[in-house]
Write a structure and sequence with these properties.
Elements: H1 17-28, E1 35-46, E2 52-63, E3 68-74, E4 79-83, H2 88-92, H3 101-113, E5 119-124, E6 129-137, E7 147-154, E8 157-165, H4 167-171, H5 189-200, E9 206-215, E10 223-231, E11 237-242, E12 248-252, H6 266-273, H7 276-280, E13 286-292, E14 295-301, E15 309-313
Antiparallel strand pairs: 1-2, 2-3, 3-4, 5-6, 5-9, 6-7, 7-8, 9-10, 10-11, 11-12, 13-14, 14-15
């Protein structure tokens, strides 16, 4: 039995009950006519990382017989989340078929955490949007390792997940370049999907994941970019990389479809060397160009890396 945590009646806005009931039914979006069968007002309780009490919360349980949902609101009657796993819409949800929901997810993240450059990666899967940040998570991970906070958005709303182990902090290295939720145009997801599928041109292929983060595939500072993963009927994945406006920059083919470049062939190496000036600039300080059975690589002094040497894959520079 959980402990009973007291609260004052004056702390609860009972006058909004009728309005909240209507809002809860709208939020749940149950297909058939729904009724509220249970309502509870209580303080939240948390067991981990240590037993604590939380804010006062309304819980409204809705059902239509075939579907059910729980909607949560704060003491003032403002809806703060939901559990819609028992609804038809949640069970059949595919965010790639409803890309406009990405705008809603981004708004929820911004409302909760602001627009500072705290994001390190965003991933869109069929039912959930994941937000990785550089915000320290005060909880300790495995063996006391530091964590960074991560969040996820679904039809239930925005929730905080258990943090990700911060290996960069543990090893004293620089972490991923951060960006703001406002740096991304979340309205172009549908166009990204359409253009990526058209670029891949594989019958019955479909989008299985979309991500946005700052990539370091060439010289200079990491650049914010979209990556769209397209899976063909055989399960092979082609990655399409686009800039923040949705313009496709390159396509990364699966291993079986990549051209077999013999880097020890003088013609192949000469072709790669001919692109060095265009990619790295006429004043690039080149430490080495290597060609072997593993591929072609170039090492240059990278200003974005404090002038220290950085190695790049010549194939990815194409």
């Amino acid at each position: 039995m959980r402990p009973l945590l007291r609260f004052d009646l004056d702390a609860v806005a009972f006058s909004v009950t009728s309005k909240l009931e209507k809002a809860a039914i709208e939020r749940a979006r149950i297909q058939d006519a729904a009724v509220i069968t249970h309502m509870e007002i209580a303080r939240q309780t948390f067991i981990l990382p240590r037993p604590t009490s939380g804010n006062i919360r309304w819980t409204l349980h809705l059902t239509s017989g075939r579907e059910h949902a729980d909607v949560f609101a704060d003491a003032h009657g403002v809806i703060i989340g939901a559990d819609l796993s028992g609804t038809q819409r949640a069970q059949s949800l595919n965010l790639f078929m409803e890309p406009e929901l990405m705008v809603e997810a981004a708004k929820a993240f911004r409302a909760a955490l602001g627009a500072k450059p705290i994001l390190t990666a965003v991933g869109i899967d069929a039912k959930v949007v994941s937000f990785a940040t550089n915000i320290p998570d005060m909880r300790l991970g495995i063996a006391g390792m530091p964590l960074t906070s991560s969040f996820s958005w679904s039809l239930d709303g925005l929730t905080q997940r258990f943090g990700k182990i911060d290996l960069n902090a543990e090893m004293g290295t620089q972490g991923p370049a951060p960006f703001s939720v406002d740096d991304v145009d979340w309205t172009i997801v549908a166009r990204l999907e359409t253009n990526s599928l058209a670029k891949v041109t594989i019958p019955q292929a479909h989008v299985t994941r979309i991500g946005v983060e700052k990539l370091s595939t060439g010289p200079g500072l990491p650049v914010l970019a979209w990556t769209v993963q397209v899976t063909d009927p055989n399960g092979e994945v082609t990655s399409v990389v686009a800039d923040t406006k949705g313009a496709i920059e390159r396509v990364v083919l699966p291993e079986s479809r990549r051209p077999k470049i013999v880097w020890l062939d003088p013609a192949a190496l000469a072709g790669a060397v001919s692109r060095v000036g265009t990619i790295f600039g006429p004043n690039a300080r080149i430490a080495s160009i290597v060609a072997d059975e593993r591929g072609g690589r170039i090492t240059v002094d990278d200003p974005a890396n404090g002038g220290r040497p950085a190695t790049f894959d010549l194939l990815r520079m194409a």
